[in-house]
Amino acid sequence: MAKYDIAVLKQFRYERVLNEDPITHALTLLGTLPLEGSSEHAPAIVRIEKTALTGDNADQLLGQELKDARLIEGTDIYTWLFGWLSPSADRPDVKINIVHPATEVHIRKYSRQEVVIVHETPALFERIVKPYITAFPPSRTQWVENILNGVSEAEKVLFRDPTPESGYLILPDMKWDLVTISSLYLVAIAFNRNVRSLRDLNKSHLGMLKSIRREAVRVVKERWGLDYGSLRMFIHYQPSYYHFHVHIVNVSYQGLPGMSAGQAHLLDDIISLIECDPDDGPSILQRMTLTYALGEQHGLYEAMKAAQSELGFY
């Protein structure tokens, strides 16, 4: 894994803004960064997000840590100001995520895009989506393999069950700053390489799904003191990468990208649906029509949008 520090970041050659998100206070930039051990630059995506304020030093925020304040507006009992806090080693101002070297697929994924609702029947899954998933080269999920094999992020793993068919590990998601409990974000990644997405789940996977739910609750309780009911666990469809994983976030984390209806499916609901399945035959997740939003930069966009006319939706 390449080492990124302030010296490397200062060599970033800016090209353009890919996306602005006022809700998460994030800016995604496209440019280039030098390859490790070389002066040659390669495409890089850099996402810069404002970190959350915590209550740890709340008594000092408007005292010694407030460097300056400037009036915006005021009326009656209400006043709005801009404020500047003094630099602090314990409270970073931004969190920086880097994708480097970035491919065209990455650039499309992180670019601002219009979306459209599509309806994926089992037939459309077999004809369009499944070949799309199957065509992905192993290199696209090599970073997942590195985590599963202990090559990277081994020190961050919170729980590991190495059983090939039903095992998984739990670790902090890269979107979490590892400090702010109100925005706690973990991910459980399965060891079973045959489960690529929601569509592959059936009754044989109930043990794994229930274990993820149980161990996530236990880990969060022991590590951060959050009680049962404090977690929102969900599965994306379409996922950002086709290796089965479950998102685990603080239930109080509001406005999180990726929790919209049609994209995030609650783990509890998925377990309940599979429990309703017969003991043999295709699972309900393989038989049902899934409705979700696709961005115009997604590799499935054109084919799935065109196919909607067959269903009478467009």
From TrEMBL:
The record's section on Gene3D superfamilies has:
HIT-like, Scavenger mRNA decapping enzyme, N-terminal domain
Biological processes, Gene Ontology terms? deadenylation-dependent decapping of nuclear-transcribed mRNA
Q: Give binding positions for substrate.
A: 143, 153, 173, 175, 236-247
For this record, an example GO cellular component is:
nucleus
Matches recorded under InterPro entries = DcpS/DCS2 (IPR008594), HIT-like_sf (IPR036265), Scavenger_mRNA_decap_enz_N (IPR011145)
Query: What residues form the catalytic site here?
Result: 245
Q: Which GO molecular function entries does the Swiss-Prot or TrEMBL record give?
A: hydrolase activity; RNA 7-methylguanosine cap binding
Membership in a protein family: Belongs to the HIT family.
Q: What name goes with this protein? A: Scavenger mRNA decapping enzyme
Q: Which organism is it from?
A: Trametes coccinea (strain BRFM310) (Pycnoporus coccineus)
